[in-house]
Amino acid sequence: MAALEPLKEFIVEAKSNTYVGGGGRRSSSRPGSRDIGYERGRWRYVDSYFGGTDFAGQETVWQDDQPQWAMNYFGRIIRPDLINGEKAGVIIKAALQAMYRDKRHFLGGTEFRHAHGYYIDNSRGDIAHFSGHEVIFVDGEEAYELDYRGGLIRP
Q: Does residue 29 contact residue 48 with C-beta atoms inside 8 Å?
């Protein structure tokens, strides 16, 4: 099983270089999926998702080709009159970039104000087992939501 600190650091590095950084496009691993990935040394990360404004996906990390960690998520635009997928993505990426710059990992309470909306992410647990909920408010109204859960994979 991977040591937790190197695993946490790799997850942040991988997320920074894929979704947040706009890189890492991969061939679709399943019909209709969009995949992004990142590798470094013995580590590999893949985020495979379906959809657009309503979407579902899974992130997985392997070390030496052995699955170590995974997270499932489902998100959706609640109020398309207030926000679209592009603006939601801009807010989420900016919030995550700020969190990573502050050397914070991807779990924990986060609030971020952006010109397009107010982002809040609450979670419970730690890298071994966690769940969370992120929302974006626009003009005081909940316009976007995402639920996630995951943890270590044990043989």
A: yes
- pLDDT of the residue at 2: 54
What is the distance between the alpha carbons of residues 155 and 85, in angstroms, rounded to a whole number? 37
Those residues with Cβ within 8 angstroms of residue 43's Cβ, 6 or more apart along the chain or in another chain? 10, 14, 61, 62, 63
Q: DSSP code of 114?
A: E
pLDDT per residue as tens digits for the range 76-105: 999 999 999 999 999 999 998 888 777 666
Q: Which tokens go with 28?
A: 């679709």
Surface-to-core class of residue 84, CB atoms within 10 Å of its CB (0-12 exposed, 13-18 middle, 19+ buried)? middle
Note the helical H segments in the chain. 4-17, 85-101
Tokens found for residue 93: 């990426």
pLDDT tens per residue, range 100-121: 777 666 676 889 999 999 999 9
Is residue 59 within 8 Å of 67, Cβ to Cβ? no
Best CA proximity match to 144, nearest among 119, 125, 112, 111: 119
Task: Kindly give, in sequence order, each residue whose CB lies less than 8 Å from that of residue 139, ignoring residues fewer than 6 positions away.
Answer: 82
CA distance 116 to 103: 24
Give pLDDT < 50 ranges for the chain: 1
